[in-house]
Amino acid sequence: MPVGEAPTQGWGDGLRLIATLRWSAGIARGSPRPCIPTTLPKLGRRVIVSTDPSDQPRYSIAAVSKLTGVSCHTLRVWERRYGFPVPCRTPSGHRRYPPRQVLLIAEVTQRTRDGVGVAQAIAEARRGSPVAPEPGRLPALGHDDTIPRLIDALVRAELEAAEARFGRACAGLGPAEVATRVIGPAITEAGERLFCGSCSLCQERLAVMFLLRKLSALLDEAQRANVRPVGRVLSLSLQGDRHEGGSLMLCLAAELAGWRAVSLGADLPTREIQHAIDAWSPAAVGISLTLSRNIRKRFDELARLRGAPVFVGGRSVVNYQGLARRCGLEVILGPAIPNVARFLDRLRDRPGEGDGTRAPSSPRAGSGRE
Ligand code: B12
Fold it and tell me: B12-binding domain location, by residue (predicted)?
């Protein structure tokens, strides 16, 4: 893709902003990627990205939250607790973050996902140098070049090489680790390459499809090993959301925890969830939320479901926790593995559940609005 010619979609641009800033701030790990768009659409407007990324506070807390995936609440807590990030204030007192702060927040988030503690990651961001993960916490394999080399092979469609690299990356890892330390980060890497223009859509698709197949294979294996499941858990993503990765992760998490995951795939109309509950009496329904489009409408629909507790998680849930809870949904934050297992363990201990029998047949509590 020529420099400056951006795809038109919203959040891809956010990621590209971060990639751009990483490049222009000169703090990228490894070699800079060939993506230096000069204009970016931001929340519907075109804005010029300065060559000095530390200037011009322009992003509201909500925009930063959407760009980085860190909730507004967490940004305020970090500010209070660690003195980071340090936004400017408008005359009316609203926070405004300069692009460089957005980059640093994204760096901190990435490092925490890699197993570094928040305080440490913030100290590192301030110093501009990486630190080792806390002892006992597993880093993503992305610290070395295993994941990038796997994606290199995939975007070149060298499938035998990709198989070999995937096999090496997974050596000695259990299924949960393969999913969380290899497949998840590799899908993210492929997505980042697309959005910063260093690979094309067909290359990203090839890589993502390869990795989703690996995730499905792990799921098959986990299902075969799980011979006496505790109860059924439905897994899906909602109508309008075609992302399957989160719901497959959810299935894997459930199977590894001893439950039978019934995968209903992506883009499922809510009325079908009700049919599935009526037909198969699951102990719970798990929903992976990647997009926040129409989220209020969807939550209102979910509030009317009867017959099984509904839990939601995924990247879009973070800013809609209150609304979700008011709609009677259970909110699970963080990665599907291990958090789904923790939730299901608690569910097993509730009377009348965990054996596939139904929860009380009442609608979910108040479908309030945010
Ligand atoms: C692959 C992909 C696609 C593929 C999906 C193919 C498929 N068969 O699944 C396709 C091409 C269809 C696609 C389309 C679009 N995509 Co897309 N896509 C991605 C990509 C690259 C990977 C998503 C993925 O599978 N990740 C792997 C899974 C395992 O990770 P995950 O979903 O984050 O799940 C983790 C956690 O969130 C959590 N989790 C997930 N679910 C649950 C549930 C529970 C209960 C719990 C506890 C935890 C949990 O656990 C997982 C880790 O263990 C991401 C970029 C990225 N870096 O992630 C963009 C991304 C998700 N897509 C995005 C967008 C904007 C789109 C499009 C709108 C683009 C467009 N303009 O067309 C469309 C929307 C289409 C639609 N209607 O759904 C944005 C979403 C931003 C947002 N939240 O608003 C992203 C983040 C890219 C970006 N940075 O801009 N996409």
Answer: 230-354
CA 40–ligand 1 middle distance (angstroms)? 21
Q: Which amino acid is at 11?
A: W
- Tell me, using a 6 A CB cutoff, whether residue 249 lines ligand 1: yes
Cα-to-centroid distance, 290 and ligand 1 (Å): 5
Domain's final residue, options 127, 150, 175: 127
Ligand 1 neighbourhood includes 140 CB (under 6 angstroms): no
Q: Is the CB of 291 under 6 A from ligand 1?
A: yes
From atom 65 of ligand 1, which residue's Cα is the shortest distance away? 11
Spans in the chain with pLDDT lower than 50: 1-16, 18-54, 129-143, 354-370
**Helix axes 184-195 and 245-256, enclosed angle (nearest 10):** 170
**What range does the domain containing 150 cover?**
141-222
DSSP string, 132-165: PPPTTSPPPGGGTTHHHHHHHHHHTT-HHHHHHH
